[in-house]
């Protein structure tokens, strides 16, 4: 929930649900401020500022006011999803049972070609730990069951066709790995 522009002008503090805000297209920093608190707020805000400072500004993703995407080249490189504590109480689709949610997805365009890449030390395990596995999101999709990939001499099974890393409520160490992978992914796309 965030304030509408009319409420800000009038000085009244009337909070309205996201679904009601048809014309509002909030920047990621507004959503972070409205939905997250504590360390997670600080981590999310620092990450958004870092992305903007590296010429990867977030833009609103479709009509979902809590999801933003940053592109590089001809496709997305990173997407965020944010849910407040109140929203998490009634959220049955999001597989997370924490009080608030800040999810980061990094799209690794051609991860199978990373095998000979000079990637930052420690990033191999991070990729293996957070690589998204097939969740059979669409039973009619030919990718059901995922695919097997050899990534840094490690065979991984049932990998999602999107070949992405999903990190939920990252701490500072995870954010540092995410930044390294985004920089690496940018180089592979150039």
| Order of H and E elements | EHEHHEEEHEHEEEH
Radius of gyration (CA) equals 18 Å
**SS element count, helices:** 6
Main sheet specs = 5 strands, antiparallel
The end-to-end span amounts to 39 Å
Low-pLDDT residue spans? 1-10, 18-22
Say how many strands there are: 9
Q: Can you give the mean pLDDT? A: 76
Q: What is the total domain count?
A: 1
Helix content: 25-40%
Structural class label: alpha+beta
Lateral strand order in the biggest sheet: 3-4-5-6-9
Q: Report the principal-axis shape.
A: globular
Strand content: 15-25%
Structure characterization notes:
With 190 residues, this protein is of the alpha+beta class. It has one domain. Helix content is 32%, strand content 23%. It has helices spanning 5-10, 28-35, 38-53, 85-89, 123-130, 172-189; strands at residues 2-3, 15-16, 59-60, 67-72, 75-83, 101-107, 147-151, 154-159, 164-168. The chain is globular and about 40 Å long. The termini are far apart. Mean pLDDT is 76; it is low at 1-10 and 18-22.
């Amino acid at each position: 929930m965030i304030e509408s522009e009319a409420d800000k002008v009038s000085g009244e503090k009337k909070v309205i649900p996201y679904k009601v805000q048809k014309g509002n297209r909030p920047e990621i920093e507004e959503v972070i401020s409205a939905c997250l608190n504590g360390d997670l707020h600080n981590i999310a805000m620092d990450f958004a500022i870092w992305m903007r400072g590296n010429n990867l500004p977030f833009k609103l993703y479709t009509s979902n006011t809590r999801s933003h995407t940053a592109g590089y080249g001809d496709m997305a490189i990173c997407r965020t999803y944010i849910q407040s504590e109140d929203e998490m109480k009634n959220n049955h689709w999001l597989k997370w049972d924490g009080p608030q949610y800040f999810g980061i997805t990094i799209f690794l365009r051609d991860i199978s070609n990373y095998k000979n890449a000079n990637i930052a030390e420690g990033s191999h395990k991070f990729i293996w730990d957070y690589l998204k596995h097939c969740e059979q999101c669409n039973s009619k999709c030919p990718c059901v069951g995922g695919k097997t990939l050899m990534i840094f001499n490690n065979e991984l099974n049932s990998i999602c066709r999107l070949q992405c890393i999903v990190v939920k409520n990252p701490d500072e160490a995870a954010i540092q790995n995410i930044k390294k992978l985004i920089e690496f992914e940018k180089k592979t796309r150039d």
